[in-house]
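hey can u check if this looks right to u? its 356 residues, i copy pasted from the old doc so theres a chance i mangled smth
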Amino acid sequence: MAQTTLPLSYPPSPLAVRAWSTDISYWLNNSLPTGYQNQSSAWFFGGENVTFRGYGVGTLDGNGQAWYDFVNGQSNYPRRPHAITIFNTHNSLFDGLRFVQSQMWTMTISHSTHTVLQSLYINSTSSTRSPARNTDGADTIFSSSITFRNLTIANGDDSIALKANSTNILIEDCTFHRGLGVAIGSIGQYPGQFETVENVTARRIRGVGIRHAGYVKTWTGQQVGYPPNGGGGGLGFARNVTFEDFTIEGATDSAFAISQCTTFSGAAGDCDSSLFQLRDFHFGPVMGTLASGNTKVASLQCSKAAPCRGVEITGVDLRLANGTAAGQYLCSGVEGTSGFNCTGTACVGGSAAGGC
C-alpha cells in the first residue's frame, strides 16, 4: 500500500499550542473521573451556546508519546486521561481545532446536545514500537444531536465511536487514517443496564489504511470482570444506522463488521448469549480497495439469543490491489438480509475490534 501524507496546514504559532505535561504520576493521581467505564479526563469543558474556534492553528498537545511508551500496549490503563471531555454542552460549535498526541481518547462528548464539531484535525500516532492504543478520535456518551463534519483523524483505535445512549448522530465529509473506522460501541458492558444507540448516519467518508469502514461491537451476555477491561450482560438496542458513500483504500479487514463477542479480560464468554438487539442497519454504497489477502465485504457475527434483523448491504465495489473483486459475506445469527447473500459463517471469538 502506498504511503499517504496527512494533510497539514502551516505549523501553528507556539502561542497557539497548549500542551499537557508529561508528569504521568501527577495525572494518575489527579485525572477527573468521567463516570463511565471507569475512565478519566484531563479537562472538563462545557456550557451553553459556546463557540470554540481554533482557526486552523489552535492546538491541544497531549504529549501522548510519554503515555504510549508508559502503558506499552496495555488497554484502558487506569486513570490514563482523555484529552478533553465536552460535558453538559448544548447548542454549541467547536471549529478549526487541532489535537495532537492525545494521552488517550481525544474528545469525549458526554451529556450534551445540539453541538457541531467541524474542521478538526486529530493525530495521535506513535513514533516508537509502543502502539497508540485507546486513542479514539472522538466518542459520544449520553448525547443527542451531535454532528461531526470535515474531521481528519489519524490514530490507533476507533476513528469515531458512538457509545451508550448516543442518538441522532451525523458524521460526514471526514477522512480517517490508520484507525479502526466508525464504531458503534462498545456497548452492553454493564449487566442488566439498558442502553441505546439510534438514528446514526455516517456518509461521504474516506478511509486510508483503516481496519473497517464501519463496525459494531457489543459485549457478550455473560459478565466477565468489570469495566473498563471487563463486563458484559448489558441490555438495549442499536437501530436505524446508515453507513453510506464510503471510499476506502487498503482496508485490512472486512469493510463492515458486527461482533457481539467483545471481551477484554482474557476469559472468552458465550458469543451467542448477548441480548443486546441490533436491527435496521444499512451499509453502502462503498467503493475502493482491500489489503492483500482480505476479500471480506462483511463479517456479521450476531448473537443467536437476539439475532440481528434488517441488515442491508448495497452498492459494493471493493477490490484487491490485483483487481480481484471482494465477495465474502460471512454471517452468523443474521435474519432478514437485503441486497446480499451470505457466503459463509462469520468467525466467532473474543474481540474488541469487530473480528476474531
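The radius of gyration is 19 Å.
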